[in-house]
């Protein structure tokens, strides 16, 4: 299992193919991990699928968070919406980081009204939906500097208003960026794949191990 995950991460993050307009989708039994812009996929167990992104929805008249890189999204299967958070824009050394929350219902993007506390602005974070706790879980961040950070948050919303709750870690503690969260349906648990703690010093080097969410921590 660890060798499969490691190979998948290197394929996705260690080449330029994820930047050439494709999605790379890895399916581990009933657990799915996806990265990159795209749309509908056909998949088989334990395989990697390249998906051309030519059937995008219209980019005008649907609202938009604006140009972003390294943001994160998760699909809330109970409400049928995609939740979007954060990201960055700008050249190296002059990046602007965001901490806004949006939802897409298949027709429109809507910016969600979220009172404090709100997660710190970030990029390179990971999100996935937990159908047992009925929330989107978010882990990690990069916000400039040298290191990733270690906080975990949970989000619930209704399409207009939402709330974030910090449930583990601290935004000032060293953690991981470039990781991924995935819901393992057969196990009924969320897994966090390995990431990088010091992402821009000498290339991407995976560290840590796969961790499972216990309900209070990884």
Coarse morphology:
globular
Rounded to the nearest angstrom, the radius of gyration is 16 Å
CATH architecture of the largest domain: 6 Propeller
Taking all residues together, what is the mean pLDDT? Answer: 75
Quaternary status? single chain
State the gist of this model:
By secondary structure, the protein is mostly beta strands.
Describe the structure.
The strands form four sheets. Strands 8, 9, 10, 11 and 12 form a five-stranded antiparallel β-sheet that branches. The chain folds into two domains: 1-53, no CATH class; 65-218, Kelch-type beta propeller (Neuraminidase), CATH 2.120.10. It is 6% helix and 39% strand. β1 (22-28) and β2 (31-35) form a beta hairpin. The protein has 218 residues and is mostly beta strands. The model is unreliable at 1-53 (pLDDT under 50).
Can you tag this structure with a few keywords?
Neuraminidase; 5-stranded antiparallel β-sheet; about 40% strand; disordered N terminus; 4-stranded antiparallel β-sheet; 2 domains
Topology:
Blueprint: H1 2-13, E1 22-28, E2 31-35, E3 48-52, E4 72-76, E5 81-89, E6 96-104, E7 109-111, E8 126-130, E9 135-141, E10 148-157, E11 162-168, E12 174-175, E13 181-184, E14 189-192, E15 211-212
Antiparallel strand pairs: 1-2, 1-3, 4-5, 5-6, 6-7, 8-9, 9-10, 10-11, 10-12, 13-14, 14-15
């Amino acid at each position: 299992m660890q060798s499969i995950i490691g190979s998948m991460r290197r394929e996705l993050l260690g080449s330029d193919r994820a930047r050439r307009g494709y999605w790379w989708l890895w399916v581990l039994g009933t657990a799915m991990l996806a990265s990159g812009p795209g749309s509908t996929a056909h998949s088989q167990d334990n395989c990697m699928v390249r998906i051309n992104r030519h059937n995008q929805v219209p980019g005008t008249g649907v609202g938009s968070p604006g140009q972003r890189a390294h943001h994160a999204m998760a699909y809330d299967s109970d409400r049928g919406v995609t939740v979007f958070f954060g990201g960055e824009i700008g050249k190296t050394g002059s990046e602007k980081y965001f901490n806004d929350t949006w939802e897409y219902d298949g027709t429109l993007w809507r910016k969600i009204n979220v009172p404090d506390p709100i997660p710190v602005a970030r990029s390179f974070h990971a999100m996935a939906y937990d159908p047992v706790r009925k929330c989107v879980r978010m882990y990690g961040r990069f916000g400039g500097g040298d290191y990733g950070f270690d906080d975990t948050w949970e989000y619930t919303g209704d399409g207009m208003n939402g709330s974030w709750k910090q449930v583990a870690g601290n935004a000032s503690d060293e953690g991981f960026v470039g990781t991924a969260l995935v819901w393992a349906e057969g196990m009924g648990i969320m897994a966090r794949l390995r990431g990088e703690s010091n992402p821009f010093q000498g290339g991407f080097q995976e560290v840590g191990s796969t961790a499972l969410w216990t309900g209070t921590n990884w």
